[in-house]
Amino acid sequence: MQLEEGKKIYFASDLHLGVPSHEASLVREKHFVRWLDLIKQDAAEIFLVGDVFDFWFEYKKAVPRGFVRLLGKLAELSDAGIPIHLFTGNHDMWIFDYLPQEIGLTLYREPIERKWNNKSFYIGHGDGLGPGDHGYKLIKKVFENPFLQWCFARLHPNFGIGLADYFSRSSRAKTGEKDAIFLGEDQEWLVIYCRELLEKAHRDYFVFGHRHLPLNITLNSAGSKYINLGDWISYYTYAAFDGQELQLFNFPLQAESPSLWTESKF
């Protein structure tokens, strides 16, 4: 696909809306909506690459409260003809058909491949990929089991959503600092995963979230890059592809406009 002149592809992930409190989450939600307002003029497509919500579960007739500013803005952009792509993450894997129906977005549960201006992209949240993390991979299989999802849906929403929200918050509290520590290229499991894929086929960019750490790592002599999108909790980072290059930017709270991300983490 050839990008229209002046248009860009945008990527963001890991908002974890809902934590650590309603008040703090609302500040971040309003800021993210402000960013969406800024990019809508030149956005060809928008990719939200997982964990937009710290917890989400859809009952047939009920969904979690809140997030109306974000959902309304996404619906507005979708109605204006901007394709919205949403990936489920490890915290919001129980998104089903509500958001695709109400907003008109496209939902993904696995990584996808796209190409713009002859640049190839491999895009996914990043959870459960690469070596290690066997405990989480087992838990993910349990959470993805249709029968167990059906069983959970039998719980009253007040109890079910409250219980799951508690465990989701507990998980973030335990892993938050660990997520944001760079392990070194030889230990970063998504770097290992990308290099394994490159042995089979070339890609120009691998775009992931999940790590909560903005990263831009060159993977081989051909210039393939692994881009981690960081988060909208500590870094407020995102990536933009202008048809020639994919770059990281940040838009911190109180900032007037985004700026190129230049801080090195390794």
Textual characterization of the structure:
The chain is an alpha/beta fold and about 270 residues long. The protein has a single domain, classed as Metallo-dependent phosphatases (Purple Acid Phosphatase, chain A, domain 2). About 35% of the residues lie in helices and about 20% in strands. It contains seven helices and twelve strands. It has helices at about 20-40, 70-80, 100-105, 135-145, 145-155, 155-180, 190-200; strands spanning about 10, 45-50, 85, 105-110, 110-115, 120-125, 205-210, 215-220, 225-230, 235-240, 245-250, 260. Helix 1 (about 20-40) packs parallel to helix 2. The longest helix has 23 residues, at about 155-180. The two termini are about 35 Å apart.
Helix count, DSSP H or I runs of 4 or more residues: 7
Separation of termini? 34 Å
Low-confidence stretches: none
| Fraction in helix | 25-40%
Largest sheet: 7 strands, mixed
Q: Helix and strand string, N-terminal first?
A: EHEHEHEEEHHHHEEEEEE
Number of strands: 12
| Class from secondary-structure proportions | alpha/beta
CATH fold-level name: Purple Acid Phosphatase, chain A, domain 2
The top level CATH class name: Alpha Beta
